[in-house]
Amino acid sequence: MIYKTNEYLGYPDRISVPAGETVKFQLSSRRDAVKVEVLRLRCGDVDVNGPGFKYDLMDSAIDGVHACLDQEIRPGSCAVIEHGGTLVPSGNGWSFGCYIYPTHIADNGRGIMSNWCETTGQGYALELDSEGRPVLRLGSTCLTLDVKVRERVWSFISATLDLAKKTARLSLIVPADGTRPAAAHAKSFALPDVLPLDSGLDFLIAAHHLDPANRYTAHFDGKIEAPRIVSSSLEAEALRVLDCQPRTGAAAPGLVAFWDFGDGITTLDIKDLSANCLHGRLHQLPRRGVTGFFWSGAVHDFRLAPREYAAIHFHSDDIYDCQWQTTFTLDVPADWRTGVYALRLTPAGDEPEPDCESYVTFFVTPGKQTKRADLVVVLSVATYLAYANSALRLYQVHFETLMEHVLWLPLDDVYMQEHPQIGQSTYDSHVDGSGRAYSSWLRPVLSMRPRGYWFNMINDTHILDWLEEKGIAYDVITDVELDREGARALRPYRAMMTPTHAEYYSFNMMNGIMDYQNGGGRHISMGGNAFYWRCGFHPAAPAALEVRRGMAGTRTWESEPGEVHLAGTGEPGALWRHSGFAPQKLVGTGFSAMINDTCTYYVRTPDSEDPRAAFIFEGTGRHERFGDFGFRYGGAVGSEIDRLDYDLGTPRHALLIATSEGLGAGALPTPEEFRTMVDGLDGTQNALVRADMVFFETGNGGAVFASGSITFGMSLGHNNYDNNISTITLNVVKRFLDPEPFVLPALT
Amino acid sequence: MDHTSDPNALRYVIDPQRLDLVEEFRKSPLGVHSAELRKMLAKMRWGKAQGRLVLIVLEAGKAWRLSRIPERRGDPMPFVDDRIFTSLSEAEWHVFKIRWQAMTGQTLPPEYQGDL
């Protein structure tokens, strides 16, 4: 059956909700009604060849039919300034301009500084036309400078009005750079007698108004720096070099507004340095912490030189919050088990439509009354967000070569191509080619749903399915709680488990787990490519994950020079390895390689005979192949794999208890693993291209087990859950839940 | 632009005389291939996404139809033809033939024009 999975779309206001609290759902559909059910997922994988789609249907107050609105997604970032009429040109002179660095000149006109409204035709604006020519809009009058700005070149664009003389002058200055000399272009125009310059609307930077209902359009792609407005007729060069920083108590004659984007980089506020205090607010999360016109290259951290980072990179396809109306609110009963939950959305009519089924996923975490289990599974929401609506299969140059087959696109991918406003993942690029630094849950996430693409969340439910099958009591929390609460989120638990792909980790998450491990907690790391990217939730936009790609690592885009630090927190956002905290230091293993071809298995090592590790292999043979099987990938060693490395921080007393065997030419090391490109790097030749299974004890009776492979969890269910991967995992879980302290070996 | 996001980075030129590689691919479209065939396939599979032939999954593991990535994001993604593939090997072979024709400008001999 071909399922229609996008007839209904939606998102929760909070991604995880403690039992006993409320969560709001925002839904949209062209259909005016929707039937709602709530499922608690055991296995969210609808593939019949695996464990199968397993869930409990919950009774809830929202069950039944609800009215549904067709709600619009309007991407595109800009700055919005309420001005009460102060920014309407008046008097004999009105000069305004800014530095621009366009990154995508195409399609339609692009607003730069504007209160102009497309529907009413009122207001004024400085813009670029579809060819990149500067345009001055004055009501219905459109004045154009016949010279084109170039993509990825800084220039200063400005206009001066003299309403008494009824003249205007439009200018473009391209400062010298490298071997290119400076250039200046200008043109004067006569103005009509009457100009409707007051649209009555907010002033916008990087867009103009679509209509008076605060809908914006003509979003600019590129950087803007230092927009300024002066109530006098200034030559363009004088406006460009204006001393915009008023000294305390010193007069700044005629300065109406000057927005210093270097002030408040970690916020969504923009600050006006003029005496008018025309501060503003950013819309749809454009990127800050980007290099500006004055970047010298002397520093790479905006915190050290904010004046060199006084630009904002706006995108016409930025999306943080769809801002849909709430369709209904769910009061999660206090007695609901923690876990992965999903709304099942189906048509409300009398005619059955079994092929029409959508989902909205959310997570229920322990409430105030919830009796805690001894084991907690920490689901990887940061990773789900990093990959949310990944369109790599649609737009990456090398992706078919990577996959080594004609690409198969699920219908969700077709939907994303046809509806790009839904926003893509942090692996994708904006229309201007710059990498997407943000992903949020305040929009429909197609890849985090049953019937969606299985990578990450769906794969993780295989582990939950196995826990249910083995009758192991567990709670579910997410790494969002770990980010917000740190180690406190783990304290109620004797053991924690991280699932198949805990790739994206924030400072609080890493430190929280390390504190927990050293305090006697036990950590079962079930996946691979874990604890890899240093990322952060944006403090001012807490539903958004921010990622900067640094200058190394397995990545589909690279940060621009000087733009590695996270705008939200200021931290260097690259690999944890490059912050001196390689994953090996946390769990003993860290990213080694991607497997593009055949998945394989583990064999035991001499270390595995150490009595300290004896409990792990009880019930299995010394020379078995571990995980020479598995659903979907075919082996427990696959997709992305991690290895031990003492130099990178694996504790010296860690035991390498098993390692992979039989990797092929499609096992290729991650770029930070080699310094020179030579023959001998792939899995057939290179001993460092491997998955390692590692065990070690930590202080105060704690311990860590790491599987070192993403596909480990998809082997658990093989042969009706009776297999050697299942056996050793059960051995680890049981021992890790046993209160008997682990004993650190004598350390030499 | 880096080595893997430059659509023109691959230097290999497909030799239309190499029907032996066509034969090798036809025998095992999803199989492990010789080094020379791997180079040819990499050339066929590399390149800008826009215009790329792709399979739309109608039913996971069961049915696919051919489509193309449109030039612009937001444009509709229609099917290329009416054919529904129930075998990935057959679909691979079909796409291979289209690309061979497009990239060499030459028609394959009649014995290679049919299905597997």
Give a quick set of tags describing it:
heterodimer; A: 748 residues; mainly beta; 16-stranded antiparallel sheet; eight-stranded mixed sheet; 44 strands; globular; B: 116 residues; alpha+beta; three-stranded antiparallel sheet; 3 helices; 17% strand
Describe the protein in words.
The complex is a heterodimer of chains A (748) and B (116). Chain A is 11% helix and 30% strand. By secondary structure, chain A is mostly beta strands. Chain A has a 16-stranded antiparallel beta sheet that branches. In chain A, strands 31-28-32-34-44-43-41-39 form an 8-stranded mixed beta sheet, sandwiched between helices. In chain A, strands 2, 4, 5, 6, 26 and 27 form a 6-stranded mixed beta sheet that branches. In chain A, a hairpin with a 3-residue loop joins strand 17 and strand 18 (215-217). In chain A, helix 7 (479-485) crosses helix 8 (507-518). With 116 residues, chain B is of the alpha+beta class. Chain B has helices at residues 19-27, 35-45, 88-104; strands at residues 53-59, 63-68, 79-85. A 3-stranded antiparallel beta sheet of chain B has the order 1-2-3, covered by helices on one side. In chain B, strand 1 (53-59) and strand 2 (63-68) form a beta hairpin. Chain B is globular, with a radius of gyration of 15 Å. The relative contact order of chain B is 0.17. The mean pLDDT of chain B is 94. Chain A binds chain B through residues 1-2, 46-47, 49, 393-401, 404-411, 414, 417-421, 431, 556, 558, and chain B through 2, 4-7, 30, 41-42, 45-49, 52-61, 63-64, 67, 69-70, 73-77, 88, 91-92, 95. Strand 29 of chain A pairs parallel with strand 1 of chain B, so a sheet runs across the interface.
